[in-house]
Amino acid sequence: MKIAFNEATTLRNSNLQQDLEYCERFGYDYIEIRLDKLKEYLRDRAVPDLQNFFGHSRIKPYAFNALESINFRDEAGFRQIKEDLIFLCEVGNAIDCKKIIVVPTFDIGDFTREQIKTETVRVLRVLSDLALPHGVRLALEFVGYPNCSINTFRQAYEIVQATDRPNVGIVLDCFHFHAMNSRLEDLRAADPGKIFVFHLDDCEDLPAGTLRDHHRVWPGQGAIHLDAILTVLREIGYGEMASVELFRPEYWEWDAARTIRTGKEAAERIIRRYFPLQESN
Ligand code: ZN
Asked: Quick check: pTM over 0.90?
């Protein structure tokens, strides 16, 4: 299992350049690049600077995070999604980053699960067609909030299956999985090849439906049954990567180097119980 860093973990105390340098220093295999940090980076640097960094570094880019609110959009909103998708495909071609996380919309009103499925399959197929010529894959991330239009593993996985495109898969985020009581038997029934990204995190012990991103804590320090999730992943044959993704304001107040180093140590401590780790040197 390779270890990745998701830039949300240092959302307020670092930028892309610093995240890259510290992730390389502390031996991460991959980074997930946030769209907002990428746009900020490109204000005074250019894509060849990123190419140059990755050309001389051990760490590699794994995915872009994220195109948000992809379903139930008006025309102008969806046009922006498509423009951002093409932008990420072009940057991705330059730096060999071929996955993009896509996130469903919140607070859509009274739509049935079937209507949500129909709409999301339609949208994913449009985006899939745009991404395919670039060799880019799309990973649908369900969000474990009651007001997110797709909020359980099973609901997201059924949509991915119905979309039926080789370049459309799912993000498994332990926090979102736990937060709305997604079921291990649904994960056990999944095709590991359809898990495009795995987000590793933990959270405080609040009831389902009340957990929010700021309740996330370092993997192994919270209430999520990570042992059960990792056991199932091993059973079904998924062992590609685990990306540390926290949104905890407390960790944004730390020095970024400490946040990034702590995330690596916490991830390795739990992952190595179930999977061999890549050697850092
Ligand atoms: Zn996530």
From this structure: yes
